[in-house]
Amino acid sequence: MKSKRDVFGIICFYLLSHLILDLFGGGIFFLYPVYNKVIFINAELLFGQNRIISSLDYGVSKYIDENGSGEP
Predict the structure, then answer these.
(1) How many domains does the chain divide into?
(2) Cα separation of 65 and 46, whole Å?
(3) Does 34 fall in a domain?
(4) In the prediction, which pLDDT does 62 show?
(5) Domain that holds residue 31
(6) Which of 29, 51, 60, 67 has a Cα-to-Cα distance from 35 of 20 to 30 A?
(7) What pLDDT, on a 0 to 100 scale, did the predictor assign at position 70?
């Protein structure tokens, strides 16, 4: 049987991984009652002619678009 510490670690892992993945999927209201803005991360890999270009954009937005994207 798992100890309480193991169960607590699993719960924390699932909660934190969910928040981190949602950052990439449109953004989250991380500190909602105190700070009413969306925090987002947008990471892309663009494949061109014989090269790969990486793009990383992050920041704070005032809203989440209708399609679920936090980036305005």
Answers:
(1) 1
(2) 23
(3) yes
(4) 67
(5) 4-61
(6) 67
(7) 46
pLDDT in tens, 10-68: 999 988 888 888 777 777 777 777 877 777 777 778 887 888 888 777 777 766 554 45
CA atoms within 13 A on the CB side of 48: 7
Tell me how long the chain is: 72
Q: Which two tokens stand for residue 13?
A: 């892992």
- Measured distance CA(62)–CA(68) in Å, rounded: 13
71 lies in a domain?
no
3-state secondary structure of 61: strand
Q: By C-alpha distance, which of 6, 8, 32, 7 is closest to 19? A: 32
In this structure, is residue 35 part of a structural domain? yes
Q: Which of 45, 71, 67 is nearest to 56 (CA)?
A: 45
- Give the rounded distance of the alpha carbon of 59 from its chain centre: 11
Which two three-digit tokens encode residue 58? 């992050």
